[in-house]
Amino acid sequence: MQKIKVGVVGTGFIGPAHIEALRRLPNVDVAALCEVNLELAQQKANQLGIERAYTFDDLLKQDDIQSIHICTPNFLHYQQSKAALLAGKHVICEKPLAKDLHEAEELVQLAKETGLVNAVHFNLRYYPLARQMKAMREQGELGDVYSIIGSYLQDWLFYETDYNWRLEPDKSGDSRAIADIGSHLMDIIEYITGLKTTAVLADFNTIHKTRKKPLKPVETYSGKMLQPEDYADVAINTEDHANVLLRFDNGNRGVITVSQVSAGRKNQLKLEIAGSKKTFAWNSEAPNEMWIGNRDGYNEMLMRDPALVHPDVRSVISFPGGHNEGFPDTSKQMFKEVYAAIEAGKQPENPTFPTFADGYRELLICERILESNRKQAWVEV
Ligand code: SOE
Hints:
Blueprint: E1 4-9, H1 14-22, E2 28-34, H2 38-48, E3 52-54, H3 56-60, E4 67-70, H4 77-86, E5 90-93, H5 101-114, E6 118-120, H6 128-138, E7 145-153, H7 169-172, H8 177-193, E8 197-205, E9 210-214, E10 231-235, E11 241-248, E12 253-259, E13 268-275, E14 279-283, E15 289-293, E16 300-303, H9 327-344, H10 356-375, E17 379-380
Parallel strand pairs: 1-2, 1-4, 2-3, 4-5, 5-6, 7-12
Antiparallel strand pairs: 7-13, 8-11, 8-17, 9-10, 11-12, 13-14, 14-15, 15-16
Domain GFO/IDH/MocA-like oxidoreductase: 131-280
Domain Gfo/Idh/MocA-like oxidoreductase N-terminal: 4-120
GO molecular function: nucleotide binding; oxidoreductase activity
């Protein structure tokens, strides 16, 4: 079988996660990577066991590389995705697709014109029970959606000394928690419920209005305690925490809370979707079970099991019940669908995976949330 050769751009946190997921697919060969300079690219290629290392421009010149994964900080997504499409490469871009709507709109149009496969890594859709909730809703088992309560909580930015490029608007954009993890939450809510968000009322809070930025890359301090002189005070104006009221196109309501300073919540997306027949509740830190609430009968707990889920959910499950699947598996399952499209050579008419158009949709909602927070008023989406 001729494997599809892939190039990965950026090897911070999520780039290696893409590489690991891609290596689990039979029709893919992660043949190359690139980094900010050739020396670092070679170092990372050696660490990750990848044969070829390039600068970004040289990677795009490789005719045998058919697809590119953009895993760099947000501010690079637009220019790199555009260049890759223009070089004739299929593109899988990390969320958010771009830093603003105009960039995202241009990418959607360019991808459409080229016919190339285009995807955005909203991988949390691929927890099997997320697709199960979607299937049950489509089968009418949830009923009309009465209300939605969602949260996405983390604690990796809990201390004022926790620092990352996501704290810098020139690299991450004007929103942080909402754009970084709220985007997953808004995407999965619309994906599962089939509803469209029509209006938002947002209230942001920056807990640490100043943070301590290490003056050198943290790894140079490995094993050495940081001293006060090793930090610089940096003013922070992006949100650590946000509450957003939501209105949907069925006339009913929801609310989300996102935080990156919630001690003990490592990477927890929670949903409570109340319908006219049942309620669904699900927690990404215990992703292999979902709670089903009933008014007139026992409440139920569904365990992820290919024998128990709807038939069209089985394609995103690889292991029997009780053999738990988690975060790394979501990217494998998503890329399985994306690379079936790449094997066919073009974007499907009705993709099952999240596309640049979904990336645009998320940016639209996030920009309206930002506007609402600025105005402290309801804003239509
Ligand atoms: C950091 O908040 C982060 O790595 C996000 O950028 C990812 O999208 C999320 O899946 C996990 O947390």
